[in-house]
Amino acid sequence: MKEVKELEFDKEVLKRIEMICRFACVKPIIKQGSIINIKGTNIAYVSPHIITIKKNNYLIFNGSDTLFVNDYSKSIKLKDLEVHIKTN
After folding, report:
1. pLDDT digits (tens, 9 = 90+) for 32-57
2. Which domain holds residue 67?
3. What's this model's pTM, rounded to 2 decimal places?
4. Are 68 and 75 in contact (CB under 8 A)?
């Protein structure tokens, strides 16, 4: 059995992302992150918020201004998101 709890998206960061996407003329698809607990164990997994823009997934955690592009190997700052969208 597993227990899933949805995480609230930071409203300030959400507004910034939506504004950046408007300037870049793209429509983001936003999926809220969650915490998955496996009952009977001490195992928990934090799933980040996922923003899909032009076939790229941007992963972001609450309280962070760092976005991970498609996986955890490449990261960018939130302020550089518009440039990254336009170049990819």
Report:
1. 999 999 999 999 999 999 999 999 99
2. 2-87
3. 0.88
4. yes
Q: Is the pLDDT of residue 1 over 90?
A: no
Largest Cα separation within the chain, whole Å, is 47
What's the chain's Rg over C-alpha atoms? 14
**Bridge partners for 53 per DSSP:** 56
Total domains, the chain: 1
CA separation for the pair 62, 83 (Å, rounded): 22
Q: How far apart, in whole angstroms, are the C-alpha atoms of residue 2 and residue 34?
A: 12
Q: HEC profile for the chain?
A: CEEEEECCCCHHHHHHHHHHHHHCCCCCEEECCEEEEECCCCCEEEECEEEEECCEEEEECCCCCEEEECCCCCEEEHHHHHHHHHHC
Q: How far apart are CA 4 and CA 60, in angstroms?
A: 18
Residues 14, 25: Cα–Cα separation, whole Å: 16
* CB of 75 closer than 8 Å to CB of 54: no
